[in-house]
Design goal:
Helix content is 42%, strand content 21%. It has 279 residues and is α/β, with parallel strands linked by helices. A ten-stranded mixed sheet has the order 3-2-1-4-5-10-9-6-7-8, with helices on both faces. Strand 7, helix 6 and strand 8 (217-223) form a beta-alpha-beta unit. The radius of gyration is 20 Å and the shape is globular. The two termini are 15 Å apart.
Length: 279
């Protein structure tokens, strides 16, 4: 498995790299840790003929990139200790666009982003880079706000083909670690989902995980999907939340911003794996 971790000067992004290596410790994977520094040629200062300001700004960006590179190297040491190959790289350009381009060019299987978790708002803030990558990535994205030891996994399961693929995607990473896995289905009362369908959905997800050599616990709730999943996350010790990219067909700016999965990501500080089928 190829994993792309975007790293910047924030603590959260370095924690994301450590978490990714922790997740992949018993799995055959390699990590590409990249820092994208801004292209000085595209900075607004170039619109003004102030050479010394542009030069000073470039120096600041280069110094920041050097500091981040050193931090990446330190974090990669943790990956290497867990026998996960980790290559640090510095790239230039628009961060979101470079991340998406590298994911395609390198054919990575998972994109990992660190995100600040402190907010006085009811919904956690996502930066422009995170929102753009989540909206436009055509493969799984892991959002990490805090470093947690992986012993408890919550899977929000709707019974869709996307969610089935998510189980198959995450299962090999967890096989040797054997965390407690809770498979949760919410009978969506907003969509008038029947009890019979909900029961069948739970049995289907449980059967899939057992066929993948896991012994999941199951939980069936009823109500609004987002509210019930967020409530379960807050009441449980989940170290990883796995959700399928519910509510959309094709990646795009407007339809995904309204979908259930993004609402869940915004309202928790736990690491969240948003699964999307890779082309």
């Amino acid at each position: 498995m190829k994993v792309l971790v975007a790293v910047d000067q924030t603590l959260e992004s370095r924690l994301a790299l450590q978490y990714a290596c922790h997740l992949l410790e018993h799995f055959d994977a390699e990590v590409d840790a990249i820092h994208v520094k801004k292209d000085v040629g595209n900075i607004i200062l170039e619109d003004f003929d102030i050479p010394f300001l542009k030069k000073d700004h470039k120096k600041k960006i280069d110094e920041q990139a050097k500091a981040v590179q050193e931090a990446i190297a330190d974090a990669c040491e943790i990956c290497l200790e867990g026998k996960v190959p980790c290559e640090p790289r510095i790239l230039v350009g628009d961060p979101a666009e470079v991340i998406l381009r590298e994911a395609i060019d390198k054919d990575v299987d998972l994109i990992v982003l660190g995100c600040q978790h402190s907010s006085a708002l009811r919904e956690m803030l996502l930066g422009q880079v995170h929102t753009h990558v989540i909206n436009h990535a055509d493969r799984p994205v892991l959002i990490v706000r805090e470093l947690r030891n992986l012993t408890d996994v919550l899977v929000a399961y709707s019974g869709s083909s996307c969610d089935e693929s998510a189980l198959n995607f995450i299962s090999p990473m967890l096989l040797k670690r054997k965390p407690k896995i809770t498979l949760m289905h919410v009978r969506d009362t907003d969509d008038l989902e029947s009890q019979e369908f909900a029961d069948a959905c739970v049995l289907k997800g449980e059967s899939t995980l057992k066929n993948l050599e896991h012994q999941p616990e199951t939980k069936l709730a009823a109500g609004n999907v987002v509210e019930e999943v967020v409530k379960e996350i807050n009441q449980s010790p989940s170290d990883l939340v796995v959700i399928g990219a519910q509510g959309f067909v094709k990646p795009g700016r407007f339809n995904i911003l309204k979908e259930k999965s993004l609402q869940i990501i915004r309202r928790t500080t736990r690491p969240v794996l948003l699964y999307r089928q890779k082309p």
